[in-house]
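Anyone able to model this chain together with magnesium ion?
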Amino acid sequence: MKKNILTGDRPTGKLHIGHYVGTLASRLKLQEKGGYDDFFIMIADAQALTDNADNPQKIRENILNVAIDYLSIGIDPKKVHIFIQSEISELTELAFYYSNLVTVSRLERNPTVKQEIKSKGFAESIPVGFFTYPISQAADITAFKASIVPVGDDQLPMIEQTREIVRSFNRIYGDVLVEPKELLPENEVCMRLPGIDGNAKMSKSLGNCIYLSDSYEELKTKVMGMYTDPLHLKVEDPGHVKGNTVFTYLDAFVNDEDFAKYYPEFKNLDELKKAYEHGGIGDVKIKKFLLQILDDFLKPIREKRKYYEEHLDEVYDILKEGTMYAHCLAKETLNEAKNAMKLNYFNNKQLLDEFKNE
Ligand code: ATP
Ligand code: MG
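re: yes, here you go
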């Protein structure tokens, strides 16, 4: 069996460091490791419209932003096909058939959708498209026969829902679809990086992000204003590390060499945490340390971004080619699925023969 990878992002804004640690880093690792047949990254514009129907311009604007983000972190279009979801109408068709295999109560139980409904303030006015986006996501994953899906942990309910659809489909119609498995980051804090405001998730829609495209000045303002420990008022006070966003980010980004370079009083993060908990270390000091580390991380990304911003035609062609390639595979899968569902009438005259022989 082929080993395909599919993952994606909604073009609701530029990508942020939560995306990086949650899923982009795994994509880069997979890309370098190889050992897969086809690797697809989808810009999920149709999914983004499910909760932004009145703002198509926002989605349009961010197509290129997201594509440039991918290329700036080092996604290699020779190894990965980047494509745009809405260009592939087969995905919508598959989702339509899959919706027969899912109950309303099953959709209502999806914890991520429940959480998003709350945070978007939908209350009683949930768009049907938004409510059913886990089905559309199952179509995206299965159309490309993906067995691996690198994601942050908010996506686990979607992958589970996809597996259920695959099982139902294969049981009823025959073995056509592939069951996917999520690939989560190893470091637990990276599974759902909190926002700079301390909110449980850094999210484009919540406006609490450090973007991969932030300048040094933007980064500095954000880091220096970050949520820390509200009980740590004076430097000598004992501080709390748990729930302290600055430490969560250090957990995600720092390594021992950073200490040798910028904070030689301590050998590693464990030592710094102990000292902070004991008291005597000011928040400004650790914020400056974090700022240094994040700036080192973003510098090479900014450099590459400059190149692509000056070569937009290249980005455009990458998207076009990736979309054409992806389209072929989605067509094939839809055909197989429709054949399995007995929805094929005009390929040959078999329908007539069957009728005559009845
Ligand atoms: P939106 O608010 O529009 O939903 P988002 O910031 O949640 O945007 P998505 O495009 O929905 O971003 O998510 C793309 C991928 O990034 C998913 O795999 C998701 O799990 C991962 N991801 C998003 N935010 C985080 C985060 N804060 N920490 C870890 N992974 C994340
Ligand atoms: Mg999201």
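The pocket of adenosine-5'-triphosphate (ligand 1) is lined by residues 9-10, 12, 18-19, 22-23, 151-152, 154-155, 192-193, 201-205 (CB under 6 Å).
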